[in-house]
Specification:
Layout: E1 3-4, E2 10-17, E3 20-29, H1 38-47, E4 52-57, E5 62-63, H2 65-80, E6 84-89, H3 92-101, H4 117-150, H5 158-168, H6 173-195, H7 204-242, H8 245-251, H9 256-292, H10 298-308, H11 311-337, H12 343-375
Parallel strand pairs: 3-4, 3-5, 4-6
Antiparallel strand pairs: 1-2, 2-3
Length: about 375
């Protein structure tokens, strides 16, 4: 029994003759008509399974790209099941296009084998070692570039340093101010909940001052700069890498580490302590706003803050900001220099720069706090 697809303009019939299945195409198989789809053709063939599938064109057969799509899927279907496809009785244009479309066979990639626990650990360890090696290599190159600068032999331009100082300094004041005030208010509200139980609301000033000066001022400023400046460094250098500008600089005998990385590193190291002090002050302003709502006068708040903080507290926060600045610049510049040569690779490098910078910041902050505790600072 022949299987017929019902269509107002296009139709086909499928008949079996031994191991050969013949499909007769009729009507206009075009974009403007309702043509049978590949599933209908496949279903008709599977009703009469054979080793050879032949297509014939009727006298009123018309075709365009829609017909070619269906025949291409039929060709792929036959190729996957070792079935011979015969289109010698179709128009010459179809035969030529089908030959071109099926000239390149689809790649059959085997599914990845599931990793055992040991293989997963081995791959993770190898990735960690590679990352650590790349980081040490980058830090070593930056150190040598800094030594050349101190000896006056580096290809580092002062105007580049000033440009990046402006980019990561004054332009970041707004977001740092907003976050710092809010963080100071959060610390004050958090402390007031507990201190109110003992009638010691005045010590909110101590909490806000120590928290901002020793920890939150430097850390929150660093997180902001990691998402803002570190990502910008990675995007700038990644774009230069994709445009082969870094290769051109290297060809001219100029070290990318001295010409591109060092100005960004020095600018961020110079700006971060200033932004940290700015953040500390505005954090105290935010805490003072909350304290005013707790019937603590400005004079009381300032006096309590002066008694709570010492010079060593301020210096510990500033030292943290210097370390954080070096880590942010390292993460951003390293990701940019190691970026691929496509727009997608630049985006991945930017993401990697922010993630690595935040990880470095958390690890360094924990290590410095442990060091301060052991030294009694």
């Amino acid at each position: 029994m022949p299987a017929t697809a019902i269509s107002p303009t296009a139709s086909f019939t499928t008949q079996a003759s031994g191991d050969e299945v013949v499909t007769q195409l009729r009507g206009a198989w075009s974009t403007h008509t309702a043509s049978p789809d590949f599933e209908a053709l496949r279903a008709s063939f599977e009703q009469h399974p054979g080793k050879r599938w032949r297509f014939r064109a009727d006298d009123d057969f018309r075709w365009d790209s829609q017909c070619m799509v269906r025949l291409f899927l039929c060709a792929r279907y036959c190729d996957e099941r070792q079935i011979t496809l015969d289109v010698t009785e179709l128009p010459e244009g179809i035969r030529k296009l089908l030959t071109v479309a099926t000239a390149v066979k689809p790649q059959q990639t085997p599914p990845p084998k599931p990793l055992s626990g040991w293989q997963y650990f081995k791959n993770a360890w190898c990735h960690l070692c590679t990352t650590a090696t790349d980081l040490l290599e980058f830090v070593g190159g930056a150190t040598l570039a800094l030594m050349n600068l101190l000896r006056g032999r580096a290809n580092t331009r002062l105007r580049d340093v000033l440009y990046f100082v402006e980019q990561c300094g004054p332009q970041a004041v707004g977001i740092v101010a907003l976050i710092s005030v809010l963080v100071g208010m959060i610390l004050a509200y958090l402390g007031s909940v507990q201190l109110r139980q003992f009638g010691a609301e005045v010590y909110v000033a101590n909490l806000v001052t120590i928290g901002m000066v020793r920890e939150m001022g430097a850390l929150m400023t660093a997180v902001i700069m990691a998402g803002r400046t570190g990502a910008a460094y990675a995007a700038q250098l990644g774009a230069m890498q994709s445009n082969e500008e870094i290769d051109a600089i290297t060809t001219l005998g100029i070290s990318p580490m001295e010409y591109l990385v060092l100005p960004r590193l020095l600018a961020l190291i110079f700006v971060m302590p200033l932004l940290c002090i700015f953040s500390d002050v505005l954090g105290l302003v935010g805490g003072g706003i909350v304290a005013a709502g707790m019937d603590i006068s400005s004079a009381q708040f300032i006096h309590q803050a002066q008694d709570a903080v010492t010079l060593s507290d301020v210096l510990t926060g500033l030292f943290k900001s210097l370390v954080f600045a070096a880590l942010i610049a390292t993460a951003g510049c390293q990701a940019g220099l190691q970026s691929g040569r496509s727009s997608a690779a630049v985006g991945q490098a930017t993401t990697r720069a922010v993630v690595n910078a935040i990880v470095y910041l958390v690890i360094a902050d924990a290590a410095l706090n442990i060091l301060y505790d052991k030294l009694g600072i």
